[in-house]
Write a structure and sequence with these properties.
By secondary structure, chain A is α+β, with helices and mostly antiparallel strands. Chain A is 37% helix and 20% strand. Chain A is built from 24 helices and 23 strands. The longest helix of chain A has 44 residues. The radius of gyration of chain A is 33 Å and the shape is globular. By secondary structure, chain B is mainly alpha-helical. Chain B has a 3-stranded antiparallel beta sheet, with helices on one face. Chain B contains 15 helices and 3 strands. The longest helix of chain B has 34 residues. Classes of the chains: A alpha+beta, B mainly alpha. At the A-B interface, helix 1, helix 2 and strand 1 of A face helix 7, helix 9, helix 10, helix 12 and helix 13 of B.
Chain lengths: 642, 365
């Protein structure tokens, strides 16, 4: 019986299987019938249409490149725009012999081997009917000369193309960055992003700064024309045309006038400066000295200029505010102070008597104060004002490296701020964990001591320093720094302002903030380390000077500014915000090998504040030149401490 | 003596299937010669591919189906392991992670899955022959979905489609209830928006451009525009071998691989197309006959799946070249230049032949 049902099951199943096979067979027939119908539709019904397209005429699709978006500063001053230049272009499919054409055309218009190289590269990634530039930037004489002989060269044409131009030259080059010719790496990236077809008519792409990071906004959408071409390669008629959509215009937060004042104030000195509006995170000025002319890159930079820029010991191509890392020196102290106060370590009326050095218990090693004789009686507020090293050595020891690092990390040290251009360096905030991973060595107590005064492993970028200052000025509300204020659609004129982004809100005690701020205000008052900077300002400045050692000084040796090689001289640092009671601007400035922060970097900051807050322009003086060029130096170079 | 050798060699070859395949391969070589600009380089390489694939087919045809049944699970597990290692250490080419570099050779584990998947599911159902319940089908779908997700992630839309199809046909032939399928269809309809969000940008664009190729005439749409012009201008009888203007000029992209059908279509016209469909139909219906005559559940399901997957192959490729299906990157079976897919397809036919020629032994044994 059981055997019987199993057999029945089996036959049922077999029947079912065959039924389903028949269903699938019918599906196959239907599928192939659909294909056959499609063949009938294409090859019989529309045969004439396709026959015409294929036999008598050929379709050529030509891209129409969009206009790249403009970049202006916050007041509408142009930073990057486009202008027309004449280019000589060849459509490969329309010429008979390439070499012969080049030889003939070369008699009228100079064509260099570089031009040929570029042409071949572009040709390799284009359709045969695309027009490809062989020479750019023809002058009027060349253009006229060729135009008169044009009839002799079918397939060669003069066209006008848009070129990028940076009217301010060297000014603020690290902000907008520059565009350059699309290279193989760019092509790979574009292909990955599936954007290759949108770049069919485009030769250039953003290479750095805003131009790179906002490439998507700036580029726009390529338009195209479908053109019927007859056997002679002449366009018979336009079948369809889709106009390109211009890239969006960008309004930056940068104040170009402020930028100019800052760069002039630096003169020939190397360094960096970042000015931020603390309440919004808008970057008002971003200086990296020395600078260079971005226009060199637009047409493809030549080898000589490239080597000059790339191999210069001054490293002009490096975006110092984002990528240069420096020990913060004493500008670190306000943040250490805040850590101490927030953790209840140095509450008033706590004070120390400073003998001019600090020693760990059971050790004879002396961590010296910059003032050999010591500062006498010092409390927290005064420690900031006079930049008392001894006070902060002890405080750092009390806090311990982990607590200290974890607290100041909230101010952006040791991590990226999230600014809207690429290439930011995160700096370094050392912890015992990090040291074990990096050097496979334990953490020594002495290393904690010197972190208290911003030396040791600690490294910051100028942007981080400005950001931290802005966070302090904004009482712990950390606004993400940004360079773009608004993005404007060209066609509709619709402008979308960028929303300020809160990175973090640090809860800080009002009294702690008050002590640190008062200490910093006193820095610019008589008796402070930068009293000169506050003189006759008309507004109150909260500031901190800093000096970052470039080489270590041995025990019992003194730092003698005059007798030390220029490149081994200390970096001068200065952070400040003003007006102290309602901060509108926060600045960090670094003058490489500038010596003392108050005297080298401070005056630059004061000039910026005078202009930004009072509209006062600095007197036109030729910048003093004191730094000899051509010495080897490395902006990250910091000698080990003993 | 010679007769015996011949008999030994051909004893497990299905002559109807073999002659259809060889004829199609021959036509394919002629088209490839035309498509590659009348150069023998590609043709010679393709002949090597074909020889390797045919030897592989012959070897598989001589393996008893019972042995295959035993290999189903290990092959499937191996396939999964290889797919996982591709995801972890695979080489990236053309923006997709598909290849596994074993030092000596590079292999594409997703191709292995094309054979392993129907074998695995056929084995699975043959184990549960008389008592199929809903839960079995759910397990089957899980077996199906794991490798498909891996392949989709690579990303390789074409292969994941073919692997899904090969698995689905087994499940369908095993007796998936019609109600279940209707429910599935409704669910898929509801899940489509979610699936859409999982697709890569380029895959989405491909689908959108399919609907309106003129959207991107400089990029992906260019293929479709040019291939429909090539086909349409072929007319009833075609322009003749080596005379396709669109194919011979540089208009048609990828014309030796995925778009080879456009070359064929331009040069041999509607008549050629119809004959090719006829040839494919012969192969498919021979496969269906083999499946219907097979003696065990495993054999039936496997033969049915391999046959129908071959149909999907041809249908999707011709459909995409003719502009009615998305450009998913499926080659035309037996035509397109390339070793891997050639080998996989002929191995499939080897399995069909094994199933057909070993059934007498099963019956008597």
């Amino acid at each position: 019986m059981r055997h019987h049902t199993e057999l029945k099951n089996y036959q049922n199943e077999l029947h079912n299987f065959k039924l389903r096979l028949i269903v699938l067979g019918i599906i196959v027939l239907i599928g192939f019938s659909i294909l056959a119908f499609r063949f009938y539709f294409l090859q019989i019904v529309h045969f004439d249409h396709y026959h015409t397209l294929a036999e008598n005429n050929r379709i050529s699709v030509t891209p129409i490149a969009p206009n790249r978006g403009l970049i202006t500063d916050r007041n509408g001053v142009t930073i990057a725009h486009n202008f027309f230049v004449y280019t000589l272009e060849i459509t490969p499919a329309k010429i008979e012999s390439f070499d012969q054409t080049i030889a003939e055309v070369g008699k009228l218009v100079e064509i260099s081997s570089n031009d040929l190289k570029r042409f071949r590269k572009l040709k390799a990634r284009s359709h045969a009917f695309e027009s490809i530039p062989i020479r750019t930037h023809l002058n009027e004489v060349e253009a006229a000369k060729f135009a008169a002989n044009r009839f002799r060269f079918p397939g060669v044409d003069i066209k006008s193309r848009l070129y990028r131009h940076y009217p301010n030259g060297k000014l603020g080059v690290h902000i907008a960055g520059y565009i350059g010719r699309i290279n193989d790496k760019d092509l790979v990236r574009l292909k990955k992003a599936d954007a290759l077809s949108n770049y069919k008519g485009t030769d250039h792409i953003g290479k750095s700064g805003i131009e790179q990071s906002y490439e998507k906004e700036l580029h726009g959408t390529t338009g195209f024309q479908q053109v019927e071409i007859n056997a002679d390669g002449k366009a018979v008629r336009i079948l369809s045309s889709t106009p390109p959509v211009s890239g969006n215009n960008l309004t930056l937060s940068i104040d170009l006038k402020l930028q100019e004042i800052a760069e002039n104030a630096f003169g020939e000195r190397r360094g960096a400066l970042v000015a931020i509006q603390p309440k919004t995170g808008e970057v008002l000025s971003l200086v990296s000295m020395p600078t260079f002319d971005p226009n060199l890159f637009v047409g493809g930079i030549d080898t000589k200029n490239w080597r000059l820029l790339n191999e210069s010991v001054d490293r002009p191509l490096i975006n110092r505010p984002l990528r240069g890392v420096y020990p913060p020196g004493s500008t670190f102290k306000p943040f250490v102070a805040l850590a101490g106060l927030e953790m209840g370590k140095r509450m008033p009326p706590f004070r120390i008597r400073d003998p001019g050095y600090f020693s760990l218990p059971n050790s004879t090693h002396r961590y010296r104060d910059w003032k050999v004789a010591g500062h006498g009686i010092v409390d927290m507020q005064r420690a900031i004002t006079i930049s008392c090293d001894t006070f902060f050595y002890g405080l750092a020891m009390d806090l311990g490296i982990e607590k200290l690092s974890n607290f100041v990390r909230h101010f952006g040290f040791g991590k990226k701020s999230g600014i809207d251009i690429r290439g930011e360096n995160g700096g370094l905030l050392p912890t015992p964990d990090w040291k074990r991973r990096r050097f496979n060595q334990p953490w020594y107590k002495g290393e904690t001591v010197i972190v208290g005064i911003g030396q040791g492993y600690t490294l910051v970028t100028p942007l981080q320093l400005a950001y931290a200052t802005a966070v302090l000025a904004n009482k712990g509300k950390a606004m993400r720094p940004r360079l773009v204020n608004a993005i404007t659609e060209v066609k509709t004129g619709k402008s979308v302002p960028t929303k300020p982004i809160v990175n973090e809100i640090i809860t800080l005690d009002k009294n702690s903030l008050e002590i640190v701020q008062q200490g910093m205000i006193d820095v610019t008052l008589p008796g402070g380390t930068a009293a000169r900077i506050g003189r006759n300002a008309g507004y109150s400045i909260a500031a901190k000077t800093g000096t970052a050692q470039v080489i270590g000084i041995k025990q019992n040796e003194r730092y003698d500014e005059k007798n030390i090689q220029e490149r081994h001289r200390d970096h001068a640092l200065f952070i400040a915000y003003a007006p102290a009671e309602n901060p509108q601007i926060a600045i960090a400035a670094i003058v490489e090998n500038g010596g003392h922060g108050g005297s080298a970097a401070g005056p630059i900051v004061r000039q910026l504040m005078d202009y930004y807050l009072l509209g006062k322009e600095p007197p036109k003086t030729t910048a003093k030149k004191e730094v000899p060029k051509g010495t080897e130096r490395n902006i990250t170079e910091v000698a080990a401490h003993d | 003596m010679i007769n015996q050798v011949f008999q030994r060699i051909f004893s497990h070859i299905d002559s109807i299937l073999l002659s259809c395949i060889l004829f199609t391969l021959l036509v394919g070589l002629f088209v490839l010669y035309s498509a590659s600009g009348q150069s023998f380089d590609r043709v010679n390489a393709q002949i090597t591919n074909i020889i390797i694939a045919i030897v592989g087919m012959w070897l598989v045809a001589n393996v008893q189906p019972q042995h295959m049944e035993r290999m189903a699970l290990p092959l499937y597990v191996l396939g999964i392991l290889l797919l996982a290692s591709v995801a972890l250490f695979g080489d990236i080419s053309h923006g997709a992670r598909r290849w596994l570099n074993l030092g000596v050779v590079k292999i594409q584990p997703s191709e292995l899955m094309r054979i392993a998947m129907p074998m695995m599911l056929a084995w699975f159902f043959s184990q549960r022959e008389s008592s199929l319940r809903i839960i079995d089908f759910i397990v089957a779908f899980i077996i199906l979905i794991i490798p498909v997700l891996f392949i989709l992630k690579q990303p390789d839309l074409g292969t994941s489609l073919l692997v899904s199809a090969s698995g689905f046909f087994v499940i369908f032939l095993a007796g998936l209830s019609w109600r279940f399928m209707l429910g599935g269809a409704v669910t898929i309809g509801a899940l489509t928006p979610i699936f859409w969000s999982l697709l890569h940008d380029y895959q989405r664009r491909r689908i959108l451009i399919l609907l309106d190729p003129t959207q991107d005439p400089l990029g992906a749409g260019y293929h479709i525009i040019q291939s429909t012009i090539a086909q349409g201008s072929g007319g009833l009888t075609g322009k003749g071998w080596l005379n396709g203007t669109q194919s011979q000029l540089d208009f048609l992209p990828e014309r030796t691989t995925d778009f080879i059908f456009a070359v064929f279509s331009e040069e041999f016209g509607m008549v050629g197309n119809s004959l090719l469909l006829l040839l494919f139909s012969l192969i498919i219906f021979r496969g269906i006959v083999i499946a219907s005559q097979a003696r065990s559940t495993f054999n039936r399901l496997l033969a049915g799946s391999i046959t129908l997957t071959f149909f999907i192959y041809a249908f999707v490729n011709i459909g995409m070249v003719s502009g009615i299906l998305p450009v998913v990157g499926v080659p035309l079976p037996l035509f397109s230049y390339g070793g891997t897919s050639m080998v996989t397809i002929l191995l499939g036919f080897g399995i069909l032949m094994s199933i057909q020629t070993h059934k007498k032994l099963v019956a008597s044994g």
